[in-house]
Fold this protein.
Amino acid sequence: MENMKKYLAEVIGTCVLVTFGCGTAVAVGCSSEAGSGYLLTALAFGLVIVAMAYSIGNISGCHINPAVSIAMLIRGQLSVTDFIGYVVSQLIGSAIGCVILGIVFGFDCGFGANQIQEGWTNGSVPAALLVEIVLTFVFVIAIIGVTSKVENSAVSGLVIGLTLTLVHILGIALTGTSVNPARSLMPALFAGGTALAQVWIFIVGPLIGGALAAVVYGFLED
């Protein structure tokens, strides 16, 4: 029963992330030329993490992201069974969020799906993969660092949310910023087209970035 509560928390958290984060991208636009829309999208993703960290963090740890879960698996803070349960729950939550967006905005809304941005002069598959690895590395190493000390618990949600905002501020103009395979896979499946063709970048990149963050932080703290 305890594990089921954790999984349900991950479903809820990921659903909220997709509904409010991707939903904001759909509502206001997130191109680098859009100005306020760009920043609102970055803030929406960050603020969702703040809200969820302080609401479901004490239940599941508020991973709501397979890249975070794989880092915790590598660090021995998550069992293989729970890792699978978390990822499945995150995907379910993301799918529910997409259904909500489809009902609200229409099922041709694009769902805030990630893809290499047209305005990115040097945009390419290798560059996009590198961007997602680097952005996820920064995001996840911040999570590991701030949650590794109990005395940081009062501010950890704020730090993690602000870090997610930070990586979005850079990444939106490049890849739309994934750093989260669950946030990317389901919107791509619903959107189809280019987003679906490129979605592997936003699965592989964040998983590598999350794993690297776990390994590097493990080396630093020894």
Observations:
- Residues 2-28 form the longest helix (27 residues).
- The two ends are 35 Å apart (CA to CA).
- The CA atoms of residues 95 and 152 lie 32 Å apart.
- The chain has a mean pLDDT of 95.
